[in-house]
């Protein structure tokens, strides 16, 4: 970016900060204005520490820290995706330190928080940089599991699209929307209100592949982005479609992964 434009953008951000008092999305604390232009400045020091602590959590399946763990969920493995990379564990029931992660996830679902999305995309890109270098950037493309149309209408944005777009531009990888959402099977019930078999069935009928993207994914390693993985049913449905459309391999990448799922793998 030309220097003048980036300086202008910084001023705009600062001016925005004066109009909308910046708050830490992890705890709600009002942030000093000077931090608004830093990438890490999106979180207060305490929440940033907690975020890095969460990243050190070990996967119970392989013993590695979360960003290094590649263990897929059973649903993903069955669909043909052998690698799932998530940055931090997600526990919707935890009340203390893990709360930061769920607050950040809800923040990007509920609001179009650019600074937080950029921070998370940078964190994802850092975790994937090594893998992509080994695979060769020329062989990799990026797509994402889209949010439901109903949620997009309600919230006004698709957090996975924003994350995946920012991630792809950081790593200079081709990025395209490959999936469309189609009507759901179980009426008004949301994915999290369904049991596992219903989730898989629902997810399978929730996505369709855009045939115009067949060339985009053919013989490529497709990096499939989402904000959160629980059972992996949604990502498995997308993986299935990517495999059917000629993708060579699929790496699922999410900000957070449900702890219950990783503990399940131990048994
Ligand atoms: Zn905070
Ligand atoms: Zn693991």
List the topology elements.
Layout: H1 3-19, H2 45-55, H3 74-79, E1 83-90, H4 99-110, H5 114-135, E2 140-144, H6 149-155, H7 159-171, E3 179-181, H8 196-204, E4 207-209, H9 214-217, E5 221-229, H10 233-244, E6 249-258, H11 259-264
Parallel strand pairs: 1-6, 2-5, 5-6
Antiparallel strand pairs: 3-4
Helix pairs in contact: 5-7, 8-10
The structure holds zinc ion (2 copies).
Q: Describe the sheet with the most strands.
A: 4 strands, parallel
**Average residue pLDDT:** 87
**Bound small-molecule species:** zinc ion
Number of strands: 6
Shape annotation: globular
Distance between the termini: 50 Å
Listing every helix as H and every strand as E from the N terminus to the C terminus, the arrangement reads: HHHEHHEHHEHEHEHEH
Describe the structure.
This protein is α/β, with parallel strands linked by helices. Helices cover 45% and strands 14% of the residues. The protein has helices at 3-19, 45-55, 74-79, 99-110, 114-135, 149-155, 159-171, 196-204, 214-217, 233-244, 259-264; strands spanning 83-90, 140-144, 179-181, 207-209, 221-229, 249-258. The strands form 2 sheets. A 4-stranded parallel β-sheet has the order 1-6-5-2, sandwiched between helices. Strands 3-4 form a two-stranded antiparallel sheet. Strand 5, helix 10 (233-244) and strand 6 (249-258) form a beta-alpha-beta unit. Helix 5 (114-135) packs across helix 7 and helix 8 (196-204) runs parallel beside helix 10. The protein is globular and about 50 Å long. The relative contact order is 0.15. Bound molecules: zinc ion (2 copies). The site of one zinc ion has 8 residues, from helix 2. One zinc ion is lined by residues 59, 61-62, 64, 69, 71.
